Input
Amino acid sequence: MKVALVGNPNTGKSTLFNSLTGLNQKIGNFPGITVDKKTGTCKLPDGALIEVIDLPGCYSLYPKSKDEAIVLEVLTNSNNPSHPDLIIVVADATNLKRNLLLFTQVADLKIPVILALNMTDAARKEQILIDIDKMSQKLGVQVIPISARRNENIELLKQAIVDAPKIALQQESIAVSTLAPQLISQIKQDIRIKEDYVALLLAHQHENLAYLTVDESNHIESLEQANAFQPQPAQTKETIARYDFISNLLKEAVQQKPKVISDTPSGKIDRILTHKVWGFVSFLAILLLIFQAIFAWAEYPMGLIENFFAWLDEVGRQLVPAGLLADLLFDGILAGLGGVLVFIPQIAILFGFIAILEDTGYMARITFLMDKIMRKVGLNGKSVVPMIGGLACAVPSIMAARNIESWKDRIITIMVTPLISCAARLPVYTLLISLVVPNDKLWGFFNLQGLALMGMYLVGTLGAIVVAWVMKKIIKTKERSYFILELPVYRMPRWKNVGLTMYEKVKTFVLQVGKVIIAMSIVLWVLATYGPPERMEKIEEKYQSAQYTQQYDEEELQIMESSEKLENSYVGVLGKFIEPVIRPLGFDWKIGIALITSFAAREVFVGTMATIYSVAEPEDDTSSIREKMSNARDSVTGAPIYTVATAFSLMIFYAFAMQCMSTVAVVYRETKSWKWPLIQLAYMTGMAYLASLLVYQLLK
Amino acid sequence: MGLFVLAMKLTALKPGKSGIIKDFTDLNLSIKLMEMGCLPGEQITYERVAPLGDPIAVSIAGYQLSIRKAEAATIIVEEVPPLF
Output
């Protein structure tokens, strides 16, 4: 049996999903589109195992965004693999009126339905008295009061799923067929639809429903014209009729005193957090806290992971006989993997903070604070969410831009989101900052490295703002942008949810990135170990000749030989080939190799560096990549390679360059054309080159 | 002498004041606002302005909604007279 959770945003639907399914959940995709599909299994009191699907939050079945459209698609298409046998509508008991609009729409689809009234604990506190039996009787469905957050009555809800009727028994809330009688009956007949409301929804939405054939869609269009159907007045009439029904229901079943928002705890918090001065002060303070935390809190676990990999390397080398296999395992795979996995604590902290911002309701306030500024540069207050999400990863954030209704605002948001420094740049920044910025305190409080990191994030954000402003001037549209956003009640973060999000994100990072990095490390190691045979032979002969063996001791010989071999290996040749182009930016051929491999994904940089330096100095197995890089010297001048100028130029390059295949792919999917991803690739890489050039030449 | 109540744009209210929704001047926008609970006859309260002067926060049907001033101006209200 398939059960779908449907509800408004901010109703605790995901919390309920988590308590029903626990860790038995997986995130997939709805076929053909990139909306996250969260499914899980749940065991019922009678022993049956059911599949639970968490559908995206929406306010009505008239979708305003692509994410919301999936709800309509799944619920109206009985052939959709996710089409449920039972729907649980999750409604916020403290905000029943608006939440029940969606319920009455869903009920009219005539799929068996249960109404779960969530947050009943908060409703009790606000002295909202709900007559559950009355409500159940009026609606003709089971109504279950729960508190997902406190795990109250979850068993009762599970029992309700067992008891749920197999056929829809709910009462009609409004007389749907009277809204467009002729049209509804014709659509029902011609498209073979059973339910009046499904037919009406098809009339309104057929252009957006992928499962209808072109013929069916055109036919509905012609039926609409024949019946002179006017969608907007029809929808207005429907919405007013539904709210009439809801008002009458609430009059009979609910007692509550009128709420004065400004007197509620949320209203009081808003007086500070959206205050003219304190609003922005607290916003900046929260951002600063996040960056300080990423450095300070992650230091200890990162040290542990570094030590663990050093230990693994040491133990491993004793077990595996020295030779090609050991080199591949330790110089190739382990070095590459260790270089990246060490950043798990920082990524977990960042995702944790973003989950907390979403969970507490503060994210909506950031949107509220920032809309005017964002609009000035061609964005939308709602662009803030993808952009803050961009701190973690551009890929889901670009998908999150679907919530922006205006096409132009959405395209610009998609185009600039990858400029926000994502978690994949974090390893690059932290590694380079730790090389050139001293670990000192400014005024005894601000960590200099933390400030440098925040500076890098500001540079990325500034770049995004400038580009957005330019695009606003270039892209023309007639469409009007609008902004209607719920400011949810402030709530304590649900630590279990935050923990689950962190766990999910880190798992995805380790699995997906881990695969890329292992593959890249192996390829790199092979290319760095082997070279054109005639060149390699010459080098070997050279170091075996009497002239060398007499002049140097064995250790010196080995170092000289392996570094010359690396320079003449396949990657060396490749790196040297692009060196003239990147020399003005202060990069040598080794960095050049990292730039090339980074086009798969930015975090590969650290792994690449680790692999290259391990191959170059095979006898030095224990020192970390950080030490190896800080000891790196120019082979001609003997000057350190990672100077302030080179490190910052490199960081700026990583801040701006489009070095992520997944982002290119997701932009293609979201914009449905190659035009936008190609423009993005070109402008970002060009901008990165020029900015790095400027930084290096100024700091040199 | 009757008591006159003037219809005005929502944005003409002062922050902190409430009105009863009477009408909308933009059909497209009105559908979206109605879905969110802004219905004719409902009481709407102008809660506050964002620090930079736009958007605004209003409360309706027991919850808070943020809309831009230009959108709020399409909502026609009658001010709820203060209680004596």
